[in-house]
Amino acid sequence: MNKYLDVSKEAAEAIAANKPVVALESTIISHGMPYPQNVETALKVEQVIRENGAVPATIAIIGGRLKAGLTREEIEHLGKTGYDVPKVSRRDLPVIIARGMDGATTVTTTMIIAAMAGIKVFATGGVGGVHRGAETTMDISADLEELAQTPVMVICAGAKSILDLGLTLEYLETKGVPVIGYQTEELPAFYTRKSGFCVDYRLDTPEELAQAFYVKQEMGLAGGMLVTNPIPEAFSMDPAVINKAIDAAIEESKQKGIHGKETTPFLLAKVKEITGGDSLDSNIQLVLNNARLAAQTASALCKCAQ
Ligand code: PSU
Ligand code: MN
User: CA of 15: how far to CAs of 4, 19, 70, 266, in Å?
Assistant: First the structure.
């Protein structure tokens, strides 16, 4: 076990007994939603995972320790402290740990810590990708490199069109990351079920998702798998409304010269500001939907390994 890592007792026991565990990220808590909805959602997501037969392990950095499995108090702390908790990607880990700081883990660092702990399935909302204009800014999320090298299955609701979805798919193809649509041929775009882009494969059951990932690992192929699960119809947003908000957010970020790790949080916050409570509600619902599928898939994956 990595000397900087603490796994909760409940998660450690489940992992040792080949019982299902689902990892969850903490950037969504500190930077993704306002307080108190962030804390309420994080706790609700854990509950949904339990109701579907798996153990939740929310991942973060607390006082310089890598944590897989947080207490309710730790979740409250991350939610209340919000943007003052630094967003931690792969390159940030050494200094944050050496200084004994707290950190909110992105998809990248949640995958790293999940893999250290032996957790194979991770549920979130959206993943990072290739930003629009990346051909000049070179702004490509470290999440894509992590998917290429770390053996964790990431279940998300697709990618937001703050990104260039076509270039994101090209990058994942180059890196050998399978992009799976759950019960869909079309890549979902987070707030909407459609994007105009195709996924690599459509799979229709948690068992099929688990089998594909199991086979990938058994073959000795490095890296993860991206499962895209469309937002439930009842909560999906009007594409015209959301795309207008995204275009305005990107325009403002260019004018303000936003760059580096601030880009994604800036764009997400602006889109939320423009679309108001509607997008927050959709965001919460799609995360719960992904948590359910992740718990079912983690259970199916345990059966593959028996
Ligand atoms: N919600 C999204 N997209 C995201 C994020 C949340 O719809 O990208 C968060 C996730 O934690 C993700 C991180 O791993 O932002 C990516 O940041 P960057 O683009 O700076 O790599
Ligand atoms: Mn970036």
Answer: 18, 6, 16, 37
C-alpha of residue 31 to centroid of ligand 1, in Å: 9
Angle subtended by helix axes 277-304 and 263-275, to nearest 10: 120
For domain 5-304, the CATH architecture is 3-Layer(aba) Sandwich (3.40)
pLDDT in tens, 87-136: 999 999 999 999 999 999 999 999 999 999 999 999 999 999 999 999 99
Ligand 1 lined by 236 (C-beta under 6 Å): no
Ligand 1 binding pocket includes 267 (Cβ within 6 Å): no
State if pTM tops 0.70: yes
Peptide bond into 34 cis (omega under 30): no
Q: Using CB atoms within 10 A of its CB, is residue 239 exposed (0-12), middle (13-18) or buried (19+)?
A: middle
- Is 76 catalytic? The answer is no
- For this structure, is 175 an active site residue? no
CA distance 208 to 212: 6
- In eight-state DSSP terms, residue 188 is P
> How close is the Cα of 107 to the center of ligand 1, in Å?
7
